[in-house]
What does this fold into?
Amino acid sequence: MESGYFSQFRNLDPEDYYHSDDGYIVYTEKYHLKRGYCCQNSCKHCPYEFNKAKTSIKKNQ
It folds into this structure.
């Protein structure tokens, strides 16, 4: 069994993320919806419309 930071990426589907030009892992809207909650990190594809300035979450339908 693999442990550590990268073990969490083993169970991801190809449509859950992509690699940015800088090499970062970017989670898609589909991944966030499958996860089911907002992590409040202002993710690029967040379907929950998290607003750091207001610290509020609004789920898109």
Remarks:
- Residues 14-61 form one domain.
- The radius of gyration is 13 Å.
- The chain has one domain: 14-61.
